[in-house]
């Protein structure tokens, strides 16, 4: 794909929470958009780090021993095998960079596990 992508337009295409949408691919990495609100589940990924880039709202990335607060324009890389839980108080929009094989709930299976859809 050689066309530009407008994040605002892509985010406007969906309202579902905790359901990542595939918007592009860079080599073996997926670029996904997700809207979140509240707490996710504690989980980790056996392989592949994840990058969370906040575009709107505030994200608290919870780890077992500390929390990291992210504002719009900030990102965090969560290394593989590190247990984490994304959390926010109000709807937050995130761009994710992760291996194409990444499942959103990692090694856990729950009602939050989603198959990624393209938009």
Give an overview in words:
Helices cover 4% and strands 46% of the residues. It is mostly beta strands. The two termini are 14 Å apart. Strands 1, 2, 3, 4, 5, 6, 7 and 8 form an eight-stranded mixed β-sheet that branches.
Summarize this structure briefly:
The chain is built from one helix and eight strands; from the N terminus they run H-E-E-E-E-E-E-E-E.
Q: State the major sheet.
A: 8 strands, mixed
Cα-based radius of gyration, to the nearest Å: 13 Å
Please provide the ordered H/E string of secondary-structure elements. HEEEEEEEE
Count the strands?
Answer: 8
Helix content: under 10%
N/C terminus separation: 14 Å
Share in β-strands? over 45%
Give the overall shape, derived from the CA principal axes: globular
Q: What class do helices, strands and sheet pairing give?
A: mainly beta
Q: What value does the average pLDDT take?
A: 89
- The helix tally amounts to 1
Q: Which segments are poorly predicted (pLDDT under 50) over 5 or more consecutive residues?
A: none
């Amino acid at each position: 794909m050689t066309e530009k992508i407008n994040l605002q337009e892509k985010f406007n295409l969906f309202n579902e929470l905790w359901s990542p949408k595939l918007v592009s691919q860079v080599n073996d990495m997926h670029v996904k958009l997700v809207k979140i609100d509240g707490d996710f589940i504690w989980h980790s990924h056996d392989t592949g780090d994840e990058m969370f880039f906040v575009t709107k709202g505030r994200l608290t990335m919870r780890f077992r021993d500390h929390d990291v607060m992210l504002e719009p324009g900030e990102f965090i890389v969560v290394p593989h095998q590190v247990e984490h839980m994304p959390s926010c108080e109000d709807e937050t929009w995130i761009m994710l960079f992760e291996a194409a094989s990444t499942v959103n709930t990692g090694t856990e299976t729950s009602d939050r596990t989603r198959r990624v859809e393209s938009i």
